[in-house]
């Protein structure tokens, strides 16, 4: 198999790097693609899977190492699954706070029963840039969109995501707790099984 001591993470998102490295533990060192390039590839795919593969290939091409990508987002029922693959760009690249404000506004006056949402995470691992058989793993996390932000942990939409099984927002979970139950944790669990790491 491939040498998994070092894996390039095809992401410029520090929150993802932290979470994924914590889940992997010491067995695999994740190195951010930011060490090689600050340029983010355009995410032109129409699905999480396509974008994850595109980012992984790009990082592997640049670094010459096997690469792992995470394409993720928030799919809101009332919005027909939006912002979905456009979650990072929902407020036109103005960042997390603007994304959250736009989402709250889009759900203004929407009753609790219709505020269901899921976080989605697709992990793609390529052994090399032209790998014809990327390893793909997916994880979902069901919850609800709050009417106001709450909590300081995590990143992105975490302050707006109510976690029914814990009765707190995702940003109120400790990092250790989030990493046990999140969409990313579920996808990583499958990946570790696929790689024989557990
Ligand atoms: O593409 P890379 O460089 O990995 O970084 P990114 O932030 O652009 O990542 P995505 O394209 O996958 O977009 C995912 C967005 O979905 C949101 N998101 C994903 N996982 C999340 C999580 O665990 N908690 C909160 N928000 C999350 C957050 O807004 C992210 O910016
Ligand atoms: Mg992105």
Automatic annotation (TrEMBL):
Name the residues that bind Mg(2+).
42, 71
Positions in coiled-coil regions: none
List the Pfam families. Answer: Ham1p_like
Alphabetically sorted, this entry's keywords are: Hydrolase, Magnesium, Metal-binding, Nucleotide metabolism, Nucleotide-binding
Which cofactors?
Mg(2+)
Residues forming the catalytic site: 71
Matching entries from SUPFAM superfamilies are given as: ITPase-like
Judging by the UniProt lineage, the source's domain of life is Bacteria
Binding-site residues, substrate = 11-16, 72, 155-158, 178, 183-184
Q: What is its EC number?
A: 3.6.1.66
Q: How does it assemble?
A: Homodimer.
Entry similarity comment = Belongs to the HAM1 NTPase family.
Its annotated function is as follows: Pyrophosphatase that catalyzes the hydrolysis of nucleoside triphosphates to their monophosphate derivatives, with a high preference for the non-canonical purine nucleotides XTP (xanthosine triphosphate), dITP (deoxyinosine triphosphate) and ITP. Seems to function as a house-cleaning enzyme that removes non-canonical purine nucleotides from the nucleotide pool, thus preventing their incorporation into DNA/RNA and avoiding chromosomal lesions.
- Which HAMAP family does this entry report, sorted A to Z? Non_canon_purine_NTPase
The name of this protein is dITP/XTP pyrophosphatase
| Species for this entry | Pseudomonas serboccidentalis
